[in-house]
Amino acid sequence: MAVTPATAFAGGLRLRLKVQPKAKRTGIVGLVDEADGGHGTGFAMKVAVGAPPEDGKANAAVIGVLAAAFGVAKAAVSVVSGATDRRKLVEIRGEPAALTARLAAIIGKFEEPQS
Fold first, then answer.
1. Which of 18, 24, 46, 111 has its CA at 20 to 30 Å from residue 34's CA atom?
2. How many Cα neighbours within 13 Å face the side chain of 61?
């Protein structure tokens, strides 16, 4: 069974994240095991951003990272839950098949989830 931090739905993709604010480097850094009760069991994509976790700055940076990685407009990415938490559920709106293919390419860069 494939490791995936996402669920496809009719309007796009819902993606579980673990965010690292105030990081030295910005970007998608891997997958983490979220079986400890984050947004359900399974895995989350770890995203590092340089912005601090205040006044929505880290959320805006996460949206920018995901929009660039998935090739969508920033307006197509929104935080569904976890706006004030490091664990987030985001929704990326677009063609589910295309987004799932892009997710597979991103995940393919990482061998196995981090602890």
1. 24
2. 22
